[in-house]
Amino acid sequence: MNAKDLVIIPAFNESETLPDVLSELRQVLPGIDVVVVDDGSSDGTGRAVGEQPGVRVLRLPFNLGIGSALRTGFRYAVDEGYQRAVQLDADGQHDPTEIPRLLEALDGADFVIGTRFGSGGSTYEVGHTRRGAMRVLRLALRMLSGRRFSDTSSGFRAFDRPVLEYFALNYPSEYMESVEVLLQATYEGFRIAEVPVRMNARAGGRPSTLRLGLAYHYVRVLVTLFVRASRRRPDRPDPSTGDGGAT
Question: pTM higher than 0.85 for the full model?
Fold first, then answer.
């Protein structure tokens, strides 16, 4: 941990859980800087932070979605000169004691995912329908990226400076953006690693998946993945072969 590390917390109507999340974070990492991006909350989420040292609140004028909130956090990190950042949920699911493990993994990677399903991680219960949809997304990503990911939708992630700079400009704004960015990052050549982590049940609030048409969003993200793959610029020819490698 160093002075150039930042925790980014996107928050929408999380006044019930956010104070406890910040309190636990301070107990584990008392010196780390934090930015809370209040995504147009109507329940006083930003005010729930209070006047805590080392915590900055950025308030969006209305609800733009988690992708836009995260892009705001990435822009803040870049503008303020942070070298590394961790994405932490405001609902209490992410265990702050795992943050050092994510940051340590950045020594050999640019982008680290805290996986719920790897060996040594938490025993995370997922419903049958959602588990099937997640399996389809894993297969699609493997086909399009050539990479195998065990947890495509985990929002517990760490980013090195080059990834922060890229996502400050290019992070997608649609719901379930966490899947799309894996394809983006792979195509950009960033080194991506997964680290098993423990996660908790939600401490309060309602999962966003209950408020949205989950099936629609799984279909949308699949379409988005294939469209992005179809628009990928072809690799430049290898000048040593003179013809792109054809024999």
Answer: no
Domain count, the chain: 1
220: in domain: yes
Sheet holding 84-87, edge to edge: 55-60, 33-39, 5-11, 84-87, 157-160, 111-115, 192-196
Name residue 84's beta-bridge partners.
5, 160
Q: Is the dihedral of CA 9, 132, 135, 105 positive or negative?
A: positive
Say if residues 84 and 166 touch (Cβ distance below 8 Å): no
**Whole-number Å distance between alpha carbons of 63 and 41:** 7
243 belongs to a structural domain: no
Backbone region of residue 246 per phi and psi (left: phi > 0; alpha: psi in -120 to 50; beta: other values): beta
CATH code of the domain containing 195 = 3.90.550.10
pLDDT (tens digit, 9 = 90+) per residue, 64-93? 999 999 999 999 999 999 999 999 999 999
